[in-house]
Amino acid sequence: MKAEWISAFGKMTYGIYVLTTCYQKEINGMIASWVSQVSHTPPQIMAAVHPHRYSHQLVEKGRSFALHVLAKSRKDLLSRFKGRDPKAKFSGLNWTAGKTGCPILNDCLAYLECELNTHYRPGNHTLYIGDVIDTGVLAEGAPLTTGDYEGIYIGKD
After folding, report:
1. Which letter does DSSP use for residue 100 in this model?
2. Which member of 13, 73, 121, 139 has the lowest number of beta carbons within 10 Å of its beta carbon?
3. How far is CA 20 from CA 86, 95, 143, 151, in A?
4. Element spanning 39, H or E
5. Are 111 and 136 in contact (CB under 8 A)?
């Protein structure tokens, strides 16, 4: 991507979320910023996931995911969920299994649990559209956004 394009894309702001997913007894979590609500009725959320991510495999197999809105004060969770080892990501964190079995983190502002409705592959990421089946607001505070993060994600692994 051209340098001026990267700079322009870097001006776009997004929330920074933790996406969790599962298949049978396997769980994983990753950082997701390319996320949006796409429908009110029915309530639906879109999340973009690169096919090389372990979470991609689990969403495909388990047909569900959960998105967690992080507080600005929990920026430390980013390094944890950027790691490769699924067990280390959840070690010492309080979470419960949601309706789909996806891990629901207790330390977040809110979560949206989704069953996979459909997916699209318009480019190098898969866009997962999920029907929201459960939500929770667990705390008040300002959400973490790309404006609070050093650097930008340009689609590399």
Report:
1. T
2. 121
3. 10, 11, 18, 23
4. strand 35-39
5. yes
